[in-house]
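The pair is quoted verbatim as follows:
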Amino acid sequence: MLDFTGIPGMPAGMPKVEVTFLIDADGILKVSATELRSGVAQSIDVKPQYGLTDEEVETMLLDSLTHAKNDIKTRALVEAATEAQQMLDTTEKFLNKYRSQLTDDEVEMTYTRMQALRDAIAAQDKDRIQHETEILNDVSRPYAERVMEGALKDAMKGKKII
């Protein structure tokens, strides 16, 4: 209930009262009333009688802050594992397509590093996943560049670049 007090005495019909209603994101209704001639204003917050109590909301906020660090770690792990899996898939496709252009040592080393990366993903160790992804990238980069250069040379045979 909003008791509107403090308005100076006026003849009937003279007071002009503006009433506004606003519902915020928390579901709280804010009602304000202003007598326009005198500028007297009052407001009240009407909280719902259902849902969460202030204590429950506060507990939830504190819990979210407490668990934020773990949430960030989990996200970083998922991102690292996703990137690693993409690297594994790309490397596997590359090996299947260009195996004939690689040495046995390159293929063996690549499969060894791919297994190490799979093991890191299974261990759910973000730092290890990132490290093994870098190693696999370093192992595969030289022969991938060599194969791509060969493919480019083949594509450019007989062509002039002006």
Notes: DSSP finds three helices and three strands in the chain. The chain has two domains: 1-51, 54-156.
